[in-house]
């Protein structure tokens, strides 16, 4: 998700000011994607430049209020209707690291164990956060996603270890 579309999604629920958008964005993502307030205002400026949001005056405390425009609603509708392709996601650094460790003759088992420990800690943290999250559906879904990804990563690390051990055994027996 881009910050751009996240802010548009929040503004589709009604006018908001910058700090309010930041707090609601972080709450909606279960605190897993912290935003710098500068990112919010920079993104709002771009959205305004592109005609997707408009300044809506200010509240009683003088904070600038933003509203989504009709082109912004169309942009948001298009975003919701477009699936996320694997090519839209950043490279998987862990996969690259494991591949380079294998290719570089590094102690792959040690690399895998270090990652396994970190992933297990993350899984535990996400599980604790889910227990604390309460009734917020958006937070719960984000945390469920993180939990499932951590569990899948642990299974993949186990697979990598088994394959690497099989390769090492094959080399020891003269096979490659």
Describe the protein's architecture and organization:
The chain is mainly alpha-helical and 176 residues long. The chain is 67% helix and 7% strand. The protein contains seven helices and three strands. The protein has helices at residues 3-11, 18-28, 37-49, 70-81, 93-103, 108-133, 137-172; strands spanning 16-17, 53-58, 64-68. It has a three-stranded antiparallel sheet. A hairpin with a 5-residue loop joins strand 2 and strand 3. Helix 2 (18-28) crosses helix 3 (37-49) and helix 6 packs antiparallel against helix 7.
Summarize, please.
With 176 residues, the chain is mainly alpha-helical. It contains 7 helices and 3 strands, in the order αβααββαααα.
Count of DSSP-assigned helices: 7
Biggest sheet statistics: 3 strands, antiparallel
Instruction: Tell me which oligomeric state these chains represent.
Output: single chain
Widest sheet, order of strands: 1-3-2
Low-confidence stretches: none
Number of strands: 3
Q: What structural class do the secondary elements suggest?
A: mainly alpha
Mean pLDDT score, rounded?
Answer: 87
CA-CA gap between termini: 42 Å
Shape: elongated
Topology:
Layout lengths: L2 H9 L4 E2 H11 L8 H13 L3 E6 L5 E5 L1 H12 L11 H11 L4 H26 L3 H36 L4
Helix pairs in contact: 1-2, 2-3, 6-7
Key structural traits:
176 residues; mainly alpha; three-stranded antiparallel sheet
